[in-house]
Specification:
single chain; 488 residues; alpha+beta; six-stranded antiparallel sheet; four-stranded antiparallel sheet
C-alpha cells in the first residue's frame, strides 16, 4: 500500500501525506517512540557539514510542538533527534533523489531494546521510497510548470497577432511572463540609439510608473552579455555590482533574457523577484528562456503582420485616389465643360446665371476632390508632428500624382515660430494649391515656400505660404502663384 501511494504521488498535498505516512510506518514497524523526516530547502542543498543544514520541512511522530521547534538543523541520527548523542538510541539514514541528499529519516528511543540491523535495512527501504515520492512530485511539478509556460507562450502569441499596438503588445508580454515566473515585475527593454537599453514596458504588483524609462548605460557588463545573446542570471539585484539602475534596490533574484530572432536582438525580458525572494531554479531558467525565444518570434511575426496591414491600407488608399482622379474628377470636369458651353450659348439672362453658378460649384467640388486625393496619398499612421515634416509629407504625397517632386523652401524657424493652430490652416491652403496646380496643362514644376518671418501688410509678424507652378491657366493669365498668409 505504501509503495502504491509513493508511486502515484503527484501534488504537493499528496506528497506531504505520503512522507508523513513514511514516518508513521517507520515508527510502527521498528517500535520507535519518535520519528522524523527532515528535508532541506530545494535551493539550499546540503553542504559538507550536512548536520548543520537548516530544515525546510519536517514530518514527525511523537514529538511535541516545543520539541519540533527545537529541531532547527537536520538530524542525521548520529546525534539524535534532539541533539543528544547515543547511536544505540537513535537511527538515521539519508533521503536521496538520484545522487542528491535532500534530508534524513531518523528514529529515536526504541521501546524494546536497541535498534537492530533489520531496523536499519527497513529504514533504508522507507527512505528510498520517500526519495522516489519526492522525485515523482518534482517530475509532476516540472511537467505542470512546463505546461503553464507553454500555454502562456501560446496565449501571448495569440494576443500579439490580434493587432495590438506595439506598446500594448510589449505590456502583454511583460505581464504574462511576470505571472508565469512568479516575479515581482516583468519588464521589456529595447536597445537605444546610444548603445544602451531602456525599459519600454513593465508589469508589476505595484505601480510600475517609475520603472518605465529606466535605462542601462552603454558598456555595462550586463549589456555586453545581453547584446551578445546571452541570458543573465542574478542572485540578488540589490547587491550585484553589475546592476546599476535606481530600481534595483527593491529586487532580489532576477533573470534577464535576450529577445532575439534570426540572430537579431530586438529586446530583453527581465523578471526580478522581490528582495529575499525564492531563487530561480534550473528548471525556471530553462522554461523562461524557451518562453523568451517564443515571445521574440511572436513579436517579429506581429511586426511583420502590422507592416503587411499598413501596406494593404496604403494600397487601398492609393487605389481610391486613382479611382477618384481617373473617374470622378474627369467626369465632373467633363460635366463642367458641358455646362460652361451651354451657358455661353444661352447668352445673358437668368438661365445663364444659374448655369454659371453650377459651373462654379462643380469647379469647387473638383478642387475639394483633388484635395482629398492628395490627402489619401499620405500615410495613415506615424505622421510627423512638426509643421516642417507635415509640409514635406504633403508635397511627397503630391509627387505620386504629379509625376515629379515639388521643391520646398523654408525661411525661419518654422516649427518654433508657427504655433499649432496655424498648422491645419496652412496645410489646407497647401493642399488646395497643389490640387489646383495639378489641373493645369503643361505642368512640369511646382515651388513651395513657407516663410515664418514674413511681415504682413498691416505690420504684424506672420507666416506666408506661396505656391508657384509653370502650368497654363484657363483664362490665359501667366501668374499661377497662390499666396496664403496669417498673423502668428
Amino acid at each position: 500500500m505504501l509503495l502504491d501511494a509513493v508511486l502515484d504521488v503527484g501534488t504537493e498535498v499528496e506528497l506531504a501525506a505520503t512522507l508523513q505516512h513514511v514516518v508513521d510506518s517507520a515508527t510502527d514497524l521498528t517500535g520507535a517512540r519518535f520519528g522524523a523526516l527532515a528535508l532541506a530547502g530545494p535551493a539550499q542543498g546540503l553542504g559538507p557539514d550536512r548536520g548543520r543544514s537548516r530544515i525546510a520541512e519536517l514530518f514527525s511522530v511523537g514529538l511535541s510542538d516545543d520539541e519540533r521547534r527545537r529541531i532547527t538543523r537536520l538530524p542525521t541520527g548520529h546525534t539524535g533527534l534532539l541533539g543528544h548523542p547515543g547511536s544505540s538510541l537513535s537511527l538515521g539514514v539519508p533521503v536521496r533523489v538520484h545522487n542528491d541528499v535532500l534530508g534524513y529519516l531518523c528514529l529515536a528511543r526504541k521501546r524494546h531494546g536497541p535498534f537492530t540491523e533489520e531496523d536499519l535495512a527497513l529504514l533504508r527501504v522507507l527512505a528510498s521510497q520517500a526519495g522516489i515520492a519526492i522525485g515523482n512530485a518534482r517530475l509532476y511539478g516540472t511537467a505542470r510548470q512546463r505546461a503553464r509556460w507553454i500555454e502562456g507562450a501560446a496565449a501571448v502569441t495569440t494576443a500579439l497577432l490580434t493587432g495590438e499596438s506595439a506598446e500594448d503588445a510589449l505590456t502583454t508580454l511583460a505581464k504574462a511572463a511576470r505571472i508565469l515566473a512568479g516575479a515581482a515585475a516583468g519588464v521589456v527593454l529595447q536597445p537605444t540609439d546610444e548603445g544602451g537599453m531602456e525599459i519600454v514596458a513593465a508589469s508589476a504588483l505595484d505601480d510600475p510608473g517609475d520603472i518605465v524609462g529606466t535605462s542601462i548605460a552603454p558598456g555595462s557588463p550586463v549589456l555586453v552579455q545581453l547584446l551578445g545573446g546571452e541570458p543573465v542570471y542574478i542572485d540578488d539585484s540589490s547587491t550585484d555590482p553589475r546592476m546599476t539602475t535606481h530600481v534595483r534596490t527593491r529586487f532580489g533574484p532576477s533573470m534577464m533574457l535576450p529577445l532575439q530572432s534570426g540572430g537579431r536582438l530586438i529586446g530583453t525580458l527581465a523578471l526580478p523577484r522581490k528582495r529575499g525572494g525564492r531563487p530561480y531554479t534550473t528548471a525556471d531558467r530553462l522554461l523562461a528562456t524557451q518562453f523568451a525565444s517564443q515571445a521574440a518570434l511572436a513579436l517579429v511575426l506581429a511586426d511583420a503582420q502590422h507592416n503587411r496591414e499598413r501596406l494593404a491600407v496604403f494600397e487601398d488608399r492609393d487605389r481610391i485616389a486613382r479611382d477618384l482622379h481617373d473617374l470622378v474628377v474627369q467626369r465632373l470636369f467633363a460635366t463642367e465643360m458641358m455646362l460652361e458651353s451651354t451657358r455661353r450659348r444661352a447668352g445673358e439672362g437668368e438661365l445663364s446665371d444659374l448655369l454659371g453658378h453650377a459651373v462654379d460649384e462643380l469647379d469647387s467640388t473638383i478642387q475639394e476632390v483633388r484635395t482629398t486625393i492628395f490627402a489619401l496619398q499620405q500615410p495613415p499612421a506615424e505622421a510627423p508632428t512638426s509643421l516642417r515634416g507635415k509640409v514635406l509629407r504633403e508635397t511627397a504625397g503630391a509627387a505620386a500624382l504629379l509625376g515629379f517632386q515639388p521643391s520646398v523652401h523654408f525661411t525661419g524657424a518654422v516649427d518654433t515660430l508657427v504655433g499649432g493652430p496655424l498648422h491645419d490652416d496652412l496645410l489646407a491652403a497647401l493642399r488646395r494649391a497643389l490640387a489646383a496646380a495639378h489641373r493645369r496643362e503643361g505642368l512640369t514644376s511646382i515651388n513651395v515656400e513657407v516663410d515664418a518671418t514674413a511681415r504682413l501688410p498691416d505690420g504684424r509678424d506672420g507666416v506666408r505660404l506661396v505656391v508657384r507652378d509653370d502650368g497654363e491657366r484657363e483664362d490665359g493669365d501667366e501668374d499661377t502663384s497662390v499666396t496664403w498668409e496669417a498673423a502668428r
